[in-house]
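Lab meeting, action items carried over

1. Structure of the two-component assembly. Owner: GW. Status: complete.
Input record:
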Amino acid sequence: MCEYSGRLVAWLDNELPDQELPDQEATNVEWHVRHCAECRKAVRAYQEVSGAFLVCYEAAIVARPRSRMTLRIAGGVAAAVAILALVLLAQQPRLERLSVRLPSPAHAPAMAFEKSAPPAPAVAVRQQPAAPAPIHSQWMAEEPVVEVALPADGLFPPGAVPQGFSFIAEVRFQQ
Amino acid sequence: MSGDSVPWALPLARFQTSEREATTLFGELRKPLLRYLVCLGLSSDEAQDVVQDSFLSLHRHLSAGGSQENIRSWLFRVAHNQARNRQNSYARRFSAPLDDAGAEWVLDEATPESALLEKEKLQRLGHAIRTLNAAERECLLLRASGLRYREIGDVLGIATSTVAGTVERAVKKLAEKCNV
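Predicted assembly:
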């Protein structure tokens, strides 16, 4: 171990206590380093390590990725927001459609009748055949009845309803 | 070293009167401060906050007629103390290693073989940095920021001779661990 070995880094940094005095300690260290192979090797090693440290330090702010914890927190927050939005949507009160009967205009514009009717939905509509009169037909007014058959597969997921089942809706038109 | 362009005593008489000077000062010291804080273990956002708070403190300090001597170490000290306040535990404080920070930079350089060797060397250095204690690491970071030993002593509240000893010890430790 050399007597100058404890001052080499400070000498490299120009930080020896009396560095400002010319031809004093700094010069002594410099002279010693020139003639001491061990100190010369140590100085090279310190320079190399200091340079590498500086490279790491300079690159730190550029290369540092976002931490996994930050990503996890961001993901958690996004999931919580999505769940909250779903809950709020589910709790929203359903609006009931009120049956409002609008009076027909006395003189409807002629153009209204020139428009072609929209295409009918592709559902199987069949006129009810001459079925036996229902029991309540005696106390209800006679009304035209249309049955609309809806395939069960269209309403429920596959397999939820036994095969062959279908739903029939009765539609009554009142005048 | 980064931050060498910042003079020892900044022309802060003009700082209070000229917005351009303030902008210059911010531009000169913002990046070194950010880098130091990130290397201390703060997140990028936290570091930005601390830098902003530090410059606000500087503004208040100067408005109150505070000393304009050695503003660089003053700012580093304020930022360092704020970083300490934000870091709850010692473990978190130094859990962010400089490890592979330089690896990407090295890969852009020279031949693949030399890049690989440099990368390995930097990885060894990263492991060696982890073995440093808090004071050694802080001293080296401030030294890499371009601060003089006296300024480092001001920031950390220790004597200049202590800084010299700590830096010497830290560099030797790194050299031994890296086998250079």
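2. GW to write a short summary for the group page. Key points so far: DSSP finds nine helices and no strands in chain B. The domain at 19-90 of chain B is CATH 1.10.1740 (Rna Polymerase Sigma Factor; Chain: A).
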